[in-house]
Amino acid sequence: MPTLCVNTPGSKIRLVSERLEVHGTDPETGTAILRVVPIRDVDRLLMQESTQISSEALATLLRADIPVTLLGWKGQHLGSFQPTTPAQGAWRVRQYQTSLVSAFTLTMAGRIIAAKIYNQRRVLQRMSANRSEDSTAALNYLGSLLNDCGRSRTVDEARGYEGAAAARYFQEWATFLPAAFPFQRRSTRPPLNPVNACLSFGSTLLYNEMASCIHASGLDPALGLLHTTQDRRWSLALDLMEPFRPVLVEALALDLFTHQILQEKHFRPHEGGTYLNDEGRAKFVVQYERRMERQFMSECAGHRTTLRQQLETQAVMYKSALADPAKFEPFLMN
């Protein structure tokens, strides 16, 4: 169980020996132990804001290098408890200095955008082949953008290619959704329909994991390249997760709706937006974890791996690139 997700409102996580006990309220029997999980089987903990954890359980998780993330009821990332990592001041100084070098920033941002467009194109290729639909026009357009983006002279110009690719990609991507779940455009604050609710929640999970990987590598996840450095966000995490969005978040959303794993009953409206409810989030996390932990033979890496391992690899590669930019290779879908 790489990720333990505690989503039941009012539940409490306690430490008993080397196990986590999740206590909740059963409507028939009263207080009950909902689940018992050995700590050795947990790699990370996700908690909804309506749940609680004891200080003993929290301390034990952190000693075991297990991060704990708190999510709001809308699925937004409220914050995390990160295990202490060895101080790497010299690497951070190098990161701060290198992030101000325009040539380095352009090179890294260009590679990230190229990988994202490549993966968007591969998602459409696979969906088109599986469903016998003609996506030739969209694939050709993305292919031309992929060829041209490498010639960008500024980061803003590279962002322009990214924006053009995203617009055409989502236009074609939406055609593979069931008619019951239409999608016209990306909306985030708030998500305006179930499809956007899933994309936002999946992005939140991915963002949190990428930030944790960067923290673990000893770098500062706030210093962005493609996403400008701003207060109150992990801009580098947003950068490094971009190539994974099509492969994980968007491909997963298609599967969830196509196979009716998520239905209308799994969403609720609130303050002009649409959000996954408790049951919907639980179903989403299960499928997210399966996709993250599924092994595959990576043509780029040359060995069997998982998407979660590739997230960790991206952070390590980026750290190496601070000394030698050639060592950074963004994730590419087979």
Briefly characterize the structure.
With 334 residues, this protein is of the alpha/beta class. The chain has ten helices and twelve strands.
Order of helices and strands: EEEEEEHEEHHHHHHHEEHEEH
Total DSSP E strands: 12
Specify the biggest β-sheet: 4 strands, mixed
User: Average pLDDT, to the nearest integer?
Assistant: 89
Q: How are strands sequenced across the largest beta sheet?
A: 1-5-7-8
**Unreliable sequence segments:** none
Name the overall outline. globular
Number of helices, counting only DSSP H or I runs of 4 residues or more: 10
Euclidean distance between termini CA atoms: 26 Å
Give the C-alpha Rg: 21 Å
Please report the first level of CATH classification, the CATH class of the largest domain: Mainly Alpha
Q: If you consult CATH, what is the topology of the largest domain?
A: Four Helix Bundle (Hemerythrin (Met), subunit A)
- Please give the share of residues in helix: 40-55%
Question: In percent terms, what proportion of residues is strand?
Answer: 15-25%
Please, what is the CATH homologous superfamily of the largest domain? CRISPR-associated endonuclease Cas1, C-terminal domain
- The CATH architecture name of the largest domain reads Up-down Bundle
Number of domains: 2
Supply the helix-strand structural class: alpha/beta
